[in-house]
Design a protein that fits this description.
GO terms for molecular function: potassium channel activity; proton channel activity. Keywords: Ion channel, Ion transport, Membrane, Potassium, Potassium channel, Potassium transport, Transmembrane, Transmembrane helix, Transport. The chain has 211 residues and is mainly α. It has helices spanning 8-35, 54-79, 86-101, 103-111, 116-140, 155-160, 164-176, 180-186, 190-205. Helix 2 packs antiparallel against helix 4 (103-111). The model has no long low-confidence stretch (mean pLDDT 85).
């Protein structure tokens, strides 16, 4: 008769924690990379004109907000899991790759603000993070990985909450073809859109899963 390894649960817990710690570290690195573009302009007559780096400041705070919101989504998702597997590790790596790529389109939008190509490039980059997160949610919400109290939660809510930011940025990418300035103004709707999809997700999650 095959005996169960008494240390298997401990090892699974350690592996899961390593995945979470690694993910948090990648988010921290991505946010740190945003700061590297922020340098004081040369002073003129002893006065520093910060308006010269207004575009870079805008890019920093925008991407900091976007990455922070995606970290909150990731934190919420992994809070409902009890273990990991190879599929989750792979999906998580793809998601983290899209996150740590964001400092590059941030540099582009800071250097060439309000041009059609830079706005579309930035918007699609942010939307790609949302797409990767959606795939990660699908992979993570398998019963074998879920914590016990998450198994009776309806799956619809989990599928809704990652959609706020990517929807805003996809719409802005289309708008940018006609008016890149208006497209950039739409980005201010990101936080309200994330709040709305989280609210909808929480309400849908209260419905028990079918079956």
């Amino acid at each position: 008769m095959k005996t169960q390894d008494p240390h298997a649960a401990d090892r699974a817990h350690v592996q899961f924690e390593r995945l979470v710690f690694f993910s948090d570290a990648v988010f921290a690195i991505a946010i740190t990379l945003l700061v590297l573009d922020l340098r004081l302009p040369e002073a003129s007559h002893g006065v520093v004109d910060l308006s010269q780096i207004a575009g870079k400041l805008f890019g920093f705070f925008l991407s900091f907000t976007v990455i922070g919101l995606y970290w909150l989504d990731h934190h919420q998702l992994f809070g409902g899991l009890r273990r990991e597997d190879g599929a989750l590790r792979l999906a998580n790596l793809v998601f983290l790759a899209s996150v740590v790529f964001l400092p590059f389109p941030t540099s582009v939008i800071a250097e060439y603000p309000a041009t059609v190509s830079s706005v579309i490039f930035y918007a699609l980059s942010v939307a790609a993070v949302g797409a990767a997160l959606t795939v990660l949610v699908v992979v993570a919400r398998r019963p074998a990985l879920l914590a016990q109290d998450e198994r009776d939660v309806g799956p619809a809510g989990a599928m809704v909450y990652p959609l706020g930011a990517p929807l805003v940025f996809l719409v802005s990418a289309v708008v940018a073809l006609r008016d890149p300035h208006l497209a950039m103004r739409l980005w201010w709707l990101t936080a309200p859109a994330v709040w709305l999809t989280n609210w909808i997700g929480r309400r849908l999650s209260k419905r028990p899963a079918a079956g």
